[in-house]
Amino acid sequence: MDVRFSDGVIVDARLSTDGPAGPVLVVAAYTTAARTSIGGRGWVVRGTVLVGDEAELLLGGAAPV
Prior knowledge:
The protein is mostly beta strands.
């Protein structure tokens, strides 16, 4: 799936559901709009909100990748 961050950058991600923390959004390494390199990371998914034809994920704390 694609994830769009608040700076407009779109990156590749996947939703993992097989861990003990519940669903986790796992995002590949990417570069922000300000050219900062960010390593891959994961966040616990706490919920979802439908906005038109898109879904927004409500994220909690960091999760192991």
